[in-house]
Design goal:
Number of domains of chain B: 1
CATH class of chain B: Alpha Beta
GO biological process, one term (chain A): lipoprotein localization to outer membrane
Low-confidence stretches of chain A: none
Protein name (chain A): ABC3 transporter permease C-terminal domain-containing protein
Membrane topology (chain A): Multi-pass membrane protein
Low-confidence stretches of chain B: none
InterPro entries (chain A): ABC3_permease_C, Lipoprotein-release_system
Number of domains of chain A: 2
Oligomer: heterodimer
Largest interface: A-B, 26 and 31 residues
Shape of chain B: globular
Order of helices and strands of chain B: EEEHEEHEHHHEHEEE
Mean pLDDT of chain A: 91
Shape of chain A: elongated
Distance between the termini of chain B: 23 Å
Number of helices of chain B: 6
Helix content of chain A: 40-55%
Number of strands of chain B: 10
Strand order of the largest sheet of chain B: 6-7-8-3-9-10
Mean pLDDT of chain B: 91
Radius of gyration of chain A: 31 Å
CATH superfamily of chain B: P-loop containing nucleotide triphosphate hydrolases
Organism (chain A): Methanoculleus sediminis
Chain lengths: ~400, ~240
């Protein structure tokens, strides 16, 4: 058994060492590219999901969002509810928001979008919008005549509007008039412009809760309370915890808040990924099969000679399987290198999706899965042609 | 000892049946150097293929050292070839990717011999066939005669009880052919090596202890031709 494997390895190595180096390099390169293809698409899909999750948590709704119970427009007793939620271990911040549709006017231009009323300090404890100011400053608690505007709504130069609401050139210090849904209008000084690259956030504007409550006639009320947790990924557990504290309002995780959009997107991406994986693996099978088939046909006589001098056909077949394993292993290693290069490039120059920049998220499990599937198909594709030639009658093989 | 009884071999080519062997019976004793001769198409290579377990007869029986080799499974036949037979092909049949030394020790590797042992033995055998300074050369770097010597060394490395050679000098000039035949004669006389060799060259007869001449798949003549050691054998 051991000597058989030793002979297979000996024959395989000599064939690799002294066979056509050009063919070997080309085959390894093809396997490497197939490997990159197997890993790349899942890494982009995973990146899209990570981007959506990050954008949702960091800029849009936090980890969880508490909304008014059915039939109510606002959450009442916001202060008390905030205190109740914040005492739950693992909850690191809450931020009440008042949401209203508004029309913005600037130098004869207007755009309809969303206006939020926030408590700046609370907002800082949940979202990271304050860290993404591209001009001016974030709101302060006492601001009543100030507004901060997303870069898309402001129409900042260089920011792609793509049919989204835009005031085409608002700058810090400019005045913007806002028409509230109750008919009230206010003029605000633009205190800052932010750019999060999340289109839902960059098309919105923020004033303080104090200002917006005054305009809308609200008192200790909010359209939603965003909740930030210490760790991501445990939203369901925190949701149960919040509900167990007697919160009567609706509590949604950020995924639930998206209304199944992400799940649907992931499902669609997974179908595309499955098709791409299947095509890649079929290409791998065909390439390895052709390489080993040509190899064995060219060495038909040699295989006959090996059998004639007393070498078992399984040893001969295994020598080809070992060659395939070597090619696949080196191909996978080269593929890992190429993939690292692509990942590095796309990390420096990310793909831009509507939800924000997408960085490839290469998961170890995806790499292992790709390596395993590549090895599996390569061994099968290498074994069959080797087996077909090796079982041939000795004299027929020797005569070629 | 080889005992072949009433061997027939019929090839079917489309609708035509070709009877390569029509009932050959032959015994080769230990230490004999038997030459199988005959015209082209007389069945001599077919007979050697069957004795070398590379082919199966249509009917008949072959016993080698008491083993009914036709009853063996393919795997057992492979092992039998590995352990008991040495085969020298007309066109050398070396593995091109291997050096002379690697070609020779390959079968020892299969037998699981320790590295030091098979390296020493293979090197020694290559020296004995006059290739001590060519052991690291590959097939493409060796002359026809040298390639055939490597093939002989490969056939002998596992001390086979029988050495079978299928027209080993067919592609060699007369000088090189003579040196190969001298080598066979020396092996036969010094080591009592049993050799069965197919040839169609008349001048080879002087080397054989016995000549079996085939005609149309049958033994036409069997002649004991050499009683004394051949001068080329060096005994």
């Amino acid at each position: 058994m051991f000597s058989g494997i030793r002979v297979s390895a000996f024959l395989a190595w000599k064939s690799i060492q002294r066979g056509s180096q050009g063919t070997l390099a080309l085959t390894i390169m093809i396997i490497a590219l197939i490997f990159v293809n197997l890993v790349f698409l899942p890494s982009i899909i995973s990146g899209v999901v990570v981007t959506f999750d990050t954008q949702s948590i960091d800029f849009d709704v936090g980890n969880l969002v508490i909304e008014p119970r059915e039939g109510s427009r606002y959450i009442d007793g916001v202060d008390g509810l905030q205190k109740k939620v914040e005492q739950i271990p693992g909850i690191t911040g809450t931020s009440p928001r008042i949401t209203a549709g508004a029309t913005f006017f600037y130098r004869g231009r207007n755009a309809a979008s969303t206006l939020y009323g926030i408590t700046p300090e609370d907002e800082r404890s949940v979202t990271r919008i304050a860290e993404y100011m591209t001009a001016g400053e974030f709101l302060s608690g006492g601001d009543t005549d100030a507004i901060i505007i997303g870069a898309t709504l402001a129409g900042t130069e260089g920011v792609e509007e793509g049919g989204l609401p835009s005031l085409e050139g608002v700058e810090v210090g400019d005045s913007v008039e806002v028409a509230y849904p109750n008919g009230e209008t206010r003029t605000y000084r633009v205190k800052g412009i932010f750019e999060t690259q999340s289109f839902g956030v960059d098309t919105a504007a923020f004033v303080t809760t104090r200002e917006m409550s005054g305009v809308l006639g609200l008192d200790d009320q909010a359209s939603a309370i965003l909740v930030k947790t210490a760790v991501n990924g445990r939203e369901e557990a925190y949701k149960r915890e919040i509900l167990s504290y007697g919160v009567q309002e609706d509590v949604l995780t950020f995924r639930e808040k998206s209304g199944g959009f992400v799940e649907q997107a992931i499902q669609s991406f997974n179908i595309i990924n499955a098709i791409s994986t299947l095509v890649s693996l079929i290409i791998a099978i065909v390439v390895v099969f052709i390489v080993i088939f040509i190899n064995t046909v060219n060495r038909r006589r040699q295989i006959g000679i090996l059998k004639a001098i007393g070498i078992d056909q399984q040893i001969i077949i295994n020598s080809y399987v070992l060659q395939v394993l070597f090619i696949t292993a080196v191909g996978a290693l080269v593929g890992i290198g190429l993939n690292a290069g692509v990942t590095t490039y796309l990390t420096a120059y990310p793909l831009v999706f509507p939800g924000g920049p997408v960085y490839p998220d290469v998961e170890a499990s995806a790499i292992l899965r790709s390596i395993a599937s590549l090895f599996a198909v390569s061994v099968v594709a290498g074994y069959i042609p080797a087996w077909r030639i090796a079982r041939e009658d000795i004299l027929t093989a020797i005569r070629g | 000892m080889i005992v072949a009884e009433n061997l027939t071999r019929v090839y079917t080519m489309g609708r035509v049946e070709v009877r390569a062997l029509a009932g050959v019976s032959l015994e080769v004793a230990r230490g004999e150097f038997v030459g199988i001769m005959g015209a082209s198409g007389s069945g001599k290579s077919t007979l050697l293929h069957i004795l070398g377990l590379l082919d199966r007869p249509t009917s008949g029986r072959v016993t080698i050292d008491g083993t009914d080799v036709l009853a063996l499974s393919d795997q057992r036949r492979t092992q039998f070839r590995l352990n008991r037979l040495g085969y020298v092909f007309q066109d050398y049949a070396l593995i091109g990717e291997l050096t002379a030394l690697e070609n020779v020790y390959l079968t020892s590797l299969v037998r699981g011999a320790p590295k030091a042992e098979y390296l020493e033995r293979s090197t020694d055998i290559l020296r004995r066939v006059g290739l001590g300074d060519r052991i690291d050369h590959r097939q493409s770097e060796l002359s026809g005669g040298e390639q055939q010597r490597v093939a002989i060394a490969r056939a002998l490395v596992n001390n086979p009880s029988i050495l079978l050679a299928d027209e080993p000098c067919a592609n060699l000039d007369s000088q090189t052919s003579k040196s190969i035949l001298d080598l066979f004669a020396r092996l036969n006389e010094e080591l009592d090596q049993t050799i069965v060799m197919v040839s169609h060259e008349d001048w080879h007869k002087e080397y054989f202890c016995r000549i079996v001449t085939l005609r149309d798949g049958l033994i036409g003549e069997m002649v004991e031709c050499r009683k004394e050691p051949h001068p080329g054998g060096g005994a």
